[in-house]
Amino acid sequence: MGTLLARLLRRLGLLRSELLARTASRYPDAASVRDGELVHVVDGGIEKWACFRCPGGCGTLIPLSLNPKRRPRWSVTTDWLGRPTVTPSVNQTNACACHFHVSRGRIDWCEDGRPPRRPGRPVDERPTPGRRGDGDGRIA
């Protein structure tokens, strides 16, 4: 119910969230992961992967291991609206070189991790990291 409400609020422009989570029991193929979606892979009650598309514009599928016995590893929590929080930060080592945090479905860019602006790509007007909401009536 919460995820459906979040999708509706996001479409209406009342919810700022670049990512919403869905749960799957198998590792997704790249074509099945949509922009704005984090696939939380849980099999038999064991968290395995968090997969989503790079928010920097390159579109690369980012698979994050949630296995506590592997290094590096991440953790994912999801609020009642389906907005994921990923810890620690994600630091891409490909040509995109993105470095960001995911908090309540929002992408908070690190100073060193903003991808270069590409021709034809609109200027991003997200608030600066650490600033939640700007009085425009949206849910942060």
Automatic annotation (TrEMBL):
InterPro entries: DUF6527 (IPR045384). Residues 111-140 are annotated as: Disordered. Pfam families: BubE. This is Uncharacterized protein. It comes from Methylorubrum populi.
